[in-house]
Amino acid sequence: MSTQELDASPLGSPLDPVDxxxxxxALVEHYQRLVRIAYLVLPPSLGRNRRVVTGHALxxxxxxxxxxxxxxxxxxxxxxxxxxxxxxxxxxxxxRQALIAGLPLWRRALxxxxxxxxxxxxxxxxxxxxxxxxxxxxxxxxxxSALSGPARAVYVLRGLERQGDAEVLRVLGAAGVAREDARxxxxxxxxxxxxxxxxDSPEFDPCSLQARPPDLMRRRQHGRAALAALAAxxxxxxxxxxxxxxxxxxxxxxxxxxxxxxxEAALDPAKLRRVPAGYWQSSTRTDFSVxxxxxxxxxxxxxxxxxxxxxxxxxxxxxxxxxxxxxxGPPMGSPQLLYAGEVDGSRIVLLHDGxxxxxxxxPRAGTAGAALDFARTDGxxxxxxxxxxxxxxxxxxxxxxxPWVRETAVRDLLAPAKEPWRLGRDADxxxxxxxxxxxxxxxxxxxxLQVRDATGVRLLADLGELAPARLTSGPPSAPKDxxxxxxxxxxxxxxxxxxxxxxTAVRSHGVRSVNAWAFAQQRLPExxxxxxxxxxxxxxxxxxxxRVLAQFQVPAPGVAAAVVARAEESPACGVREPRVLAGVLxxxxxxxxxxxxxxxxxxxxxxxxxxxxxxxxxxxxxxxxKAGARADLDGTLRNGTRVGALR
Length: 647
Description:
By secondary structure, the protein is α+β, with helices and mostly antiparallel strands. The chain has helices at residues 20-29, 31-41, 48-60, 85-101, 135-145, 149-159, 165-174, 179-190, 216-241, 261-265, 301-312, 487-499; strands at 127-130, 209-212, 319-322, 336-343, 346-352, 356-363, 371-376, 387-392, 396-401, 407-412, 421-422, 434-435, 447-453, 456-461, 469-473, 480-481, 511-523, 530-540, 547-553, 562-568, 581-587, 593-599, 603-610, 614-617, 620-625, 631-637, 642-644. 23% of the residues lie in helices and 25% in strands. The strands form 6 sheets. Strands 10, 11, 13, 14, 15, 16, 17, 18, 19 and 20 form a 10-stranded mixed β-sheet that branches. The protein has a 5-stranded mixed β-sheet with strand order 3-7-6-5-4, covered by helices on one side. A hairpin with a 3-residue loop joins strand 23 and strand 24. Helix 1 (20-29) packs across helix 4 (85-101), helix 6 crosses helix 8 (179-190) and helix 7 (165-174) packs across helix 8. The radius of gyration is 27 Å and the shape is globular. The chain starts with 19 loop residues before the first helix and ends with a strand.
């Protein structure tokens, strides 16, 4: 089979019905890209603040309203047009609503919801803008503002989506643009220089924002009127609350202005918990709670006080982030100080309160542009607490390693035969910078942090969060690290070399570990070699939100695995339910199409119905099909239970 003939897209064209869960998965995975498309296509006359919030509103409202029934066998496309139906549907809805938002209200047709300010999201008291770019980005923005909405859509589809004119015409037609208008838009877009690389600039990224105040004089005038109304409401509320036990003086809570001694103690840098060096060697625990305090600025009382104050009350200028499911409130008592020092031109403080790791960073001069990052780390073991991200620049990342880590190295997952190379550390355990795949646009390398302690060697992957994720391989009941040099370890590295690029699907999701399991091998029809079926399961720190990706690996070295099914909050491929069933539409070199399917060891027979009918004993299936066919897949377990494919 040619490498261009396989893709992770489900079977059928983007115009086929799309399951709401499939569309939601595509929306979550490509959210930043979709919002960027909406922001660029929306009319510049709306202003940058409204384009930001409207772009987010359009993407969040782009899911289909109905759920289709039945498990679908994913299908194939060519690699140059690798867009799954869920993403194609959401992108089409975003484009359609963005084009509607640019229509005048006084046209003959009734106004549409997209033409009005969005109900959600809303940010009161601030104006949000993407980060400013250079002169080239400003010039391109001015040229795009002179185009019509369809012409801007043409430029964006050509630049961001790398689509040819034929596909652009099809997408615009699906979005409701008349064919003659679409052709005119192609011609108008040709007048703008093809500076497509600038579309990836922060100038056009409505997910990376800066905040500014609105018209303060006008807000003050409106605020006085609102204050008078609020005072009247408070008086009425107080009179109503005095006789009873709810709001009155008999309530359990102190007034909002009361001082809380415990909360104030948590903000005192003198009461930070400091673990002495070497304490971990005699402790019964091996986790963040026994990390010693490190860093040249560990005694800088002013820096520590600012870090604690920003943690408790982050101001509007602070750039804050948190992994999903992580509370962002003030510290629960006096936290533990892990590190305070200067790295890459910033002063950095790392803190831990038993539930969360918190990173505070400020520029070397002043506090403008301070950042605050939260990550859940409760229940961490010796491997889960082996390292934390200390500094992240445009392309590089530095780690602070645990005191029990003896050696650090870098291993490229995409080069399984290449030996890891040494990564130096200073006396505090801060590593040298290494190229991180977390912010990379392509997938030409996937560097991981390899750590060695007294019990073995582990691989940790940077997925854009404070805590790197552990990578393992094998059945869910007995996963193993992938750093061994024996034959088993080598095959695990080969497996991850094909699956690494799909880690982008779980990036910034609060992932604690990812296990890749080759649950089946299948001989391809017409003697085209042996393919592998792989299930990758990502577990999170919060327990919920796990993601499962079923992948199909053709026997072609260097070709990334195709994601043929995905699920969230599913027990499949995990310790509680170590089984999985998936299928794909595959084309042989002869041009013949087949439905291929494989299940884990619990399956005794497989069956396809719908557009392709077939049945096979055992856990492998191959049935001749037609191009574009759709089929439903299920299988029978040893106990006679019939279950559907992963979706």
